[in-house]
Amino acid sequence: MRYRDWRLWLTVGLALAGWPEWVRAEAPRGADALYKQYCAECHHPERLGAMGPALLPENLDRFPKKEAAAVIAKGRPATQMPGFETQLSADEIQELVKRIYTPLATPPVWDEAAIKASHVIHHANATLPDKPVHAADLMNLFMVVELGDHHVTVLNGDALAPIHRFPSRFAVHGGIKYSPDGRFAYMASRDGWVSRFDLFGLQMTHEVRVGVNTRNMAVSGDGRFVMAANTLPQNLVVLDAADLSLVKVIPVVNPKGERSRPSAVYTAAPRNSFIVALKDLPEVWEIPYHDKGAKESFPIRRIELDAILDDFFFDQPYRHLIGASRTAASGQVIQLDEGRKIAAIDIAGMPHLASGITWPYQDTLVMATPNLKEGEVTVVDLNTWKTIKKIPTLGPGFFMRSHENTPYAWVDVFFGPNKDAVHVIDKRTLEIVKTLRPAPGKTAAHVEFTKDGRYALLSIWDMDGALVIYDGNTLEEVKRIPMKKPSGKYNVSNKINRSAGTSH
Ligand code: HEC
Fold first, then answer.
1. How confident is the model at residue 174, as a pLDDT?
2. Were both Cys, which of 53, 150, 200, 229 would link to 265 (CB 3.0–4.6 Å)?
C-alpha cells in the first residue's frame, strides 16, 4: 500500500511539474489575479482609471451590478471595452463584479504631484483665435452633453442646428459652466477630469485630472478660479481658470478632524464666494475668493446646521439657502450672512432643490421644485416660506426649467412608468396645461431655453435619442435632432446671466 501511495504521489507530482499551464487553468482564479491579468492594463492597477474609466464603487454608484456583469461579458460595442465571455466563466465575472464594487482598502492617493503631472495643454492661450471661427451668436450657443458615446455637441441656438461635435472625457456630469464673458466652457467628468473648451476656436485648451471621483465644479463669479468638489479623495481643488493650473487643494475636514465628502460646490457670484455642501457633516462652507492679493488664501467660513443637508437651492441674490435632508420631514431655510436657520418649509419626500426655479407670482416671488420621490411639484412663497401649492404630476421628476420670457415651466417625470411624459405648467395659474410625450416609452428629460426664451430644447434620454425642440408659446414641436443619449444642455446667456428659469 505504501509503495502504491508513493507511486501515486510521484505521478501527481510529475503532472504538476510537467503541466503547470494545465494546473493553473483548472485552479479557481481569484479576483486579484483576474483583475491583474485582464483589466488592470486599461482600468489602472488600483482601479483608478486610465484609458478605461475608474472601476470603484464611488464611480459606479449609479451603475447596476447586473449591467456591469453584462458589460464585462459582452463588452461595449463601438468602444475599446472588449467582451470577456469566452475567457472568463460566469463565476469569474461575478468575482470581478464583486471586486469593482468593493472600496479600496486605503483611499487612493491623488495628491498635488499627481494633479500637476496630469495637466495637459492642448492649445496654449497665446495660440487661440481672437475672433470666433464660426458665425453663431456666442451668447445663444448651447453645449449638449451626449452621454451615450461621451461627446459634446455645440449647437447654434438661433439656427437650432449643431455647429460642432467633439469627444469628451468619460461621463461628463454636474453641468457645464462658462466663464463670465461666455467664451470658455468648463466641464468635469465623473473620474476627475476638468476640461476647458474655447467657444471661439471650438477646441479644447487645457485639461487636468483633479481627483479620482468628482461630484461637480464651479467657476468663480470673477472668472478667475475653478473649484472642483471631489469624493475621492475627499477634497476641494482650486484651479486657475485661465489654464487649469493648480492653485490649492483644500481637504474637507472639520477642526475635530472629522472628514466628509463634499456633495457639491456652487458659485455665489453676488457674494464673491464659493459655497460647498457637505454630505457627511451638518455644515456648509463658504469660501470667498474676492481677496485679489491673496491667491493662496481661500479661508473657510463654516456654517453649522441642525442636520446634514442633501440638496440645496439658493435664492437669486444668494441671501438664503434652502436645504432638504432625505431623512427630515421638512426643508430648512438658512440665512447665509447670519449663518442660521430662519424657517422650516413644508416639502415632503425628496425635493430636487438643485433643479428648483423661481418666478414672480401675483405679488410675490415663488420657488418651485420637482420631487425625486413623490409625484408632485412643490411651490413655495419666498417671502413667507409657506408652501402655497403642491401640483400633482404623473410621477417623481428630476428637472424643472423655465425662462423669464415664457409663461410656462416645464417639468419631467423622470422616474416610473410615465418617464416619457413632460408636464407644462402655467406659471400664472400653477396648473398643468399640457402633458407631452415626445417619444413614447423613452425617458424625456431636461428642458433648456434659447437665450430669448422662445424655444424649449428637450432631451430624449436614449442611445437612439434626440433633442426635441418646441416652440415655447404654442408648445408645438419645431424640430428633432438625433443624438446619443443627450442629457444636460447649457445655454451660454442663460447660464452667465443666471436666468431664474435654470440652475447655475
Ligand atoms: C482594452 C482596454 C480594456 C480592457 C482590457 C478592459 N476594459 Fe473595461 N472598459 C474599457 C473602456 C474604454 C471602457 C469605457 C467604454 C465606454 O466608452 O462606454 C470600459 C468600460 C468598462 C465598464 C463600464 C464602466 C462604466 O462606468 O460604464 C466596466 C464595468 C468595465 N469596463 C470592466 C472591465 C473589467 C472587469 C475588465 C477586465 C475583465 C475590463 N473592463 C477590461 C476598456 C477596457
1. 87
2. 229
pLDDT of residue 346: 87
Q: Is residue 27 part of a domain?
A: yes
How many domains, in total, are found in the chain?
1
Decide if 24 is inside a domain: yes
283 bridge partner residues:
304
What DSSP state is assigned to residue 301? Answer: E
Q: For residue 421, what pLDDT is reported?
A: 97
Q: What are phi and psi of 3, to 5 degrees?
A: -60, -45
Residue 339 cell numbers, joined = 449663518
At 22 the pLDDT is: 44
Probe target for ligand 1 pocket from 39, 56, 67, 81, with the most ligand atoms within 8 Å of CB: 81
Domain that holds residue 71: 15-100
Cell of 399: 428637472
**For the segment 249-285, what is each residue's pLDDT rounded down to a tens digit?**
999 999 999 999 999 999 999 999 999 999 999 999 9
Determine contact, residues 47/104, Cβ cutoff 8 Å: yes
- Please state the length of the chain: 504
Q: Please check whether residue 54 lies inside any domain of the structure.
A: yes
**All cell numbers assigned to 413:** 417625470
Q: Is the CB of 81 under 6 A from ligand 1?
A: yes
pLDDT digits (tens, 9 = 90+) for 287-343: 998 765 555 689 999 999 988 888 889 998 999 999 888 777 788 899 999 999 999
- Using CA atoms, how far residue 219 sits from 2, 223, 244, 496, in Å, is 80, 6, 11, 10
Q: CB of 38 closer than 6 A to ligand 1?
A: yes
The CATH number of whichever domain residue 19 belongs to comes to 1.10.760.10
Strands, E assignment, 79-191: 120-121, 141-146, 151-156, 161-167, 177-178, 184-188
DSSP string, 393-419: -SS----EE--TT-SEEEEE--SSTTT
- What's the grid cell of residue 216? 461637480
Cβ 56 under 6 angstroms from ligand 1: no
Kindly give the parts of the chain with pLDDT less than 50: 1, 3, 10-16, 18-25
CA-nearest residue, atom 5 of ligand 1: 39
Test site for ligand 1: of 34, 42, 60, most ligand atoms within 8 A of the Cβ: 42
Copy the grid coordinates of residue 93: 465575472
Question: What is the distance in angstroms between the CA of the first residue and the CA of the last residue of the chain?
Answer: 83
* Interacting residues of 320 by C-beta distance below 8 A, sequence separation 6+: 314, 333, 334, 335, 336, 342, 382
Q: Report whether 320 contacts 284 (CB < 8 A).
A: no
